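Shipment paperwork, digital attachment
Item: protein structure file
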Amino acid sequence: MKVIIVSVPGGGKSTVLKFVKKKLPKAKIITAGDLFLEIARKKYGITNRDDLRKKLTIEQQRKIQEKVAEKISKMKAKILLVNTHVTIKTPYGFFSTLSEKTMRIMKPDLIVLLEFRPEDILARRLADKERKRDIESLEAIEEHQTINRNSAFDVATDTECPVKIIDLRFKEKKPFEQPKKGAEEIVKLIKLVTK
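Attachment content:
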């Protein structure tokens, strides 16, 4: 089973997937951005993930996305979880990283779209000292989530792939409440689909 896990940058996908891994230790988790960076480093000398969308042309990004999709399509695992984005914001505008072409190459069984409160996303981006995250207004973050939702359904319709939206737009009462809830929902969904 191949599941694409998406949200806006800085939403918390990686943290959610860490909690999924605790509950499903045999699941293989791959971050598409790491594969993308590996190819971009070799081909274009880019060394920072946050520079990918800023320094590569749309055509360069498109070609690398297809190579990443081909690598993912060849991966073998009973449960493969792909951490990626539906769209990314580039200097040219929003770019769909899950195009009909890449989806047909990867052949996922399911897309899981994680949605968070924009204020939580902004706080995570501000706290992330390891990355050069875009700092945007709450309205811009919400706009990106809306674009992701629409894009996910567009590509899912074209490729006959279901989309599950996991709404994590609640104020946490204790640390990691959102990622734990997200992981719980993903695990339930995987168990439902694989039984």
